[in-house]
Amino acid sequence: MPVNLLVRTSKLRNCTLVTGFHGVGETGYISVSYLVHALNAKRIGFVDVAHPPPFIATSEDGLVTPFEVYRAGRIVLVKLEFSPHRAEEAEFAKTLARWVVENKFKDAILIGGLDGALKSGKDGVRIVTTGDYPVKAKKMKHPKLEAGLFVYGPLAVMLGEFEKLSFPAVAVLPYASAEHADPKAAATAIRAVSKAYGLKVDVRDLEYDAEDIEEEIDKRMQQTARSLRGLYG
After folding, report:
1. Lower CB count within 10 Å: N or C terminus of the chain?
2. Residue 205: its pLDDT value, please?
3. Which helix (H) or strand (E) holds 204?
């Protein structure tokens, strides 16, 4: 069974994709989750996979499934509550990138994290762009990732796919803790995206409640890891 996007609208031309994966500091996940709520985005679909995580949660709005698609105006957000199964991680990233191109999105923003131990200079963000991404037009005036450093995981797969398809995409990579969830790094990423794309997003709650958010997410990740060990030995 391939990876499929089950989305209730086909009118996505000129939209901007925003997504992020569970990586360094959980930065991509925290950023996208916060943006969904801050922008009051509405769920418009799901990502269907062959090996879904055996977890589901509830919220005030109902069930929260592992991979969901939201929309707020011209911003489309793909939120991953859990990481895709290792066996289909690359296919997940490729399918999402191709879906964006096929539906004639305007561009894509991929949020991840860099190990804070590698930080150099004053700017807390590095970016990686495809050849077709107009950096000057979007005011994404952060340094590019230094030569010799790697982007890895599904975010890297998406960047590679976008490059091959000549599609404008940018990875926004704040320096983050490699040891635990880092809400402050997510706030840094959101500020960078908001400035470049004219979004009005207040990140003060994310910064002020950083310790509580960090503790909650770390606890959840530990519980998930223990459950998976119990299921798969």
Report:
1. C
2. 83
3. helix 204-208
**More confident site: 180 or 171:** 171
Tell me how many domains the chain contains: 1
Tokens of residue 203, six digits: 């990140």
Cβ atoms of residues 175 and 121 within 8 Å: no
In the chain, the DSSP E strands lie at 4-7, 16-20, 42-48, 57-59, 62-64, 67-72, 75-80, 107-111, 114-115, 125-129, 169-176
Residue 64: domain span? 4-232
Contacts of 40 by beta carbon, 8 Å cutoff, 6+ apart: 72
Read off the pLDDT of residues 118-136 as tens digits, 9 standing for 90 and up: 888 788 999 999 999 987 7
Taking residue 7's Cβ as centre, other Cβ atoms within 10 Å add up to: 17
Picking from 89, 84, 85, 73, the residue whose alpha carbon sits closest to that of residue 35 is 73
- 176 and 183 in contact (C-beta within 8 Å)? no
* Sign of the CA dihedral with 159 first, then 70, 39, and 57 last: negative
Token pair, residue 111, equals 């949020």
State the Cα–Cα distance between residues 75 and 39, nearest whole angstrom.
Answer: 9
Q: Is 194 exposed, middle or buried (0-12, 13-18, 19+ CB in 10 A)?
A: middle
pLDDT computed for residue 118 by the predictor: 83
